[in-house]
């Protein structure tokens, strides 16, 4: 089981497409994003509800409505997206197993349970490093990496695909 859900991955990919659209293209619908990525519309709609509540995207109403980034891509971190979609769940939940050692009988001595469990301490440090790393990467940075990696025509192909969907939706 992954700590970070598949929904986060789809959410990040959607935000990358919205980032590209924010450079002058039309707003994008959940239906188009779902079709583009081959996932059910209902699935992405649930993700976009979470992204909207977190203030990462905004929806506009009407026939030309869709979604756009709510703030600059430089201001949206991976941690923002993870927490919006998966919540702020801990990496590890200590079960205080240290207090249940058979040699302790019915009550563990104070030394055995004093302070933070040594295992939990390592897990807390790992979680902090992971969250710090996720917070250090923005949507803009990853968008730039993707643009550098992909052939030039890919961006145009994606843009044309979304533009064609928008045109067809509006009877053009």
User: Which CATH first-tier class would you pick?
Assistant: Mainly Alpha
Helix content: 55-70%
CATH architecture: Orthogonal Bundle
Structural class: mainly alpha
Sheet with most strands: strand arrangement: 1-2
How would you describe the overall organization of this protein?
With 172 residues, the chain is mostly helical. It has helices at residues 6-21, 30-37, 41-53, 78-86, 110-113, 118-135, 139-149, 152-169; strands at 57-60, 66-69. The chain contains 8 helices and 2 strands. Strands 1-2 form a two-stranded antiparallel ribbon. The mean pLDDT is 90.
List key phrases describing it.
single chain, 172 residues, mainly alpha, Arc Repressor Mutant, subunit A, 5% strand, elongated
Question: What's the topology here?
Answer:
Elements: H1 6-21, H2 30-37, H3 41-53, E1 57-60, E2 66-69, H4 78-86, H5 110-113, H6 118-135, H7 139-149, H8 152-169
Antiparallel strand pairs: 1-2
Helix pairs in contact: 1-3, 1-4, 1-7, 2-3, 4-6
Q: Could you give a short description of this structure?
A:
The protein is mainly alpha-helical and 172 residues long. The chain contains eight helices and two strands; from the N terminus they run αααββααααα. A hairpin with a 5-residue loop joins strand 1 and strand 2.
